[in-house]
Amino acid sequence: MKNTFWTYFKSLISNMKCRVALSLILIISVGLTEGIGLLLFIPLLQLVGLHTTEGTIGQLARFISSVFTKFGIPITLITVLLVYVSITSISALLSRSQTLVNNYLENKFVLYLRVELHKAISNTSWLFFSKKRSSDFTQILINELDRVGIGTHFFLQVIANSIITLVYLLLALQLSPQMTLITLICGVILLFLFKGQINKVYRSGEQISKETSSFYSASIEHFSGMKTTKSYCAEEKNVNIFSNLSSHRAQMFINLNRLLANVRFWFAVGSVLILSFILYVSFNVLKINTASVLLLLYLFARVMPRFSNIQQDYHQVINMLPAFANVNDLQIKCEAAKEVKIEDKETIEFQKTIELNNISFSYEKEKAVIENLNLIIKRGEFISIVGPSGSGKSTIADLIMGLLTPDKGYIKIDNNPLSAERINSWRSHIGYVTQDTFLFHDTVHANLLWACPNASEKEIKQALKLAACEEFISTLPEGLETILGDRGIRLSGGERQRLALARALLRKPSLLILDEATSSLDSENEKQIQGAIEQLHGEITVLIISHRLSMVCNSDRIYVLDKGKIVETGDWNSLVSNKNGRFYKLFSAKESDLNYFLKPKLIV
């Protein structure tokens, strides 16, 4: 807990230096003006007939009188009240400025943390990112950082109340060192009595983080799977799961507020007892004069609630620390797993070949997914990789794109190693379409420009034509300006795939990768996409990963993958004619595809 607090404190100070300094100046100014306002009670007590000429209060009365005389202000009830109103107004103005500066500081600090965390998440390696739930990132990026913002507000309140309390205590020390010491001792005892609550508050913060993480995960999963939920009539089950998670989360906040309420109650009782004790000792033991007692009583009446506020605000800060720890921990992990990219160092142009030489790859300590793999793709070729599920087909695509780094071997583009200096340049030449097409809740036009922001209207039309999208785009209510809905829900599966293909083609890629891009489509939609792709034959290099014969039959070369190894290579004719080969066995079980084996396919 202490380490987390100091990490938080250093982060706040190092990133918000000027704003923290300004906040402290305003806090001190508020404290001083409040102190001056309290001193003005002395001439007011004198004017209403109380004795204020002896002891420390007499010295303060003479000092205030000399200040009034120096500025040529007569000490009358009206002038003292006018000065008091002026000082109080200045104090209120400074307090307002402090509130605005603190609010600005809180939001800017959270903004800084949020942007830095988002940057760290975006720049982390694909391998690290793919092992996390997206809801975990979302929960920390939004909810946990909101809690950090609230905790920062209370932390600044602790500082403000502490400084103003110190001003009050310094004034009280001038009036009666004995009573001030007694008050301090009593205040420390009160704080010590509630020390045991700090660990409870911290644990409560940890539980809130944990329950909120589950809450976010369930929310995102339930909404993402709503179609499946409805198809299984499982709405009530979803509601019950969500209700239970919401109930647990609500209970965490109820428990926390009960804990804080108990602290407030006992602190309030303790404060009244201390004030009563001070009043009794002042009159009956120390025999302090009435004016001094009244001023002390007023001072301590202001101090004790601030002690209470400091305690409560500190508890809120402690409750926030687990949220900050989660933010900091995620950022450290993301930065440790940062994808190594050195931008704008070296460009790469795919003119001849992509070569995978003796490549091996495994996910951490798992069994090798790809083992001693050799593969060559020539510019302008139609290359297909086929194989059973789990054979490593998509992993090869990720390796070629540089999303994964091989454990052994190397990848070369035109004899240039695919190194960190060339990753950005290389990816700018790739168009990528997957089975799970992602479209934004935006217009068709915006979804296309996302891949190529500077594309002209002519280039957009050309890409739509190549991807066989023109017909269905023309039927949309607002054409290119039609909002597609969440993940493109207003389009059919085939339309989404064709639009994703158009988006990839808009980049004018040197290499187009289709990773099971038609696996979930019907025959008609598959034929449309296949026709669109075949128009590109010879113009761009296409790498197809598929288990459908219709997508691979016109390939220049087919690689058959099994358990991470290439077990067979050839064109359609050679592979089909080998009835003992892995390719023939892989597809011969598909009754609907037997016609593909009846006669060889010709390369178009």
Description of the structure:
By secondary structure, the chain is an alpha/beta fold. Helix content is 64%, strand content 10%. Among the domains are: 2-336, ABC transporter transmembrane region fold, CATH 1.20.1560; 440-508, Rossmann fold, CATH 3.40.50.300. The protein has helices at residues 2-15, 17-39, 41-47, 55-70, 77-123, 126-130, 134-175, 177-193, 196-224, 226-231, 235-284, 290-336, 393-401, 423-427, 444-449, 457-466, 470-475, 493-506, 523-534, 549-552, 572-577, 582-588, 595-598, and strands at residues 353-361, 370-378, 382-386, 408-413, 416-417, 430-434, 511-515, 541-545, 557-562, 565-570. A 6-stranded mixed beta sheet has the order 6-7-8-3-9-10, with helices on both faces. α9 (196-224) packs across α12. The protein starts with a helix and ends in a 6-residue tail after the last helix. The model is unreliable at 596-604 (pLDDT under 50).
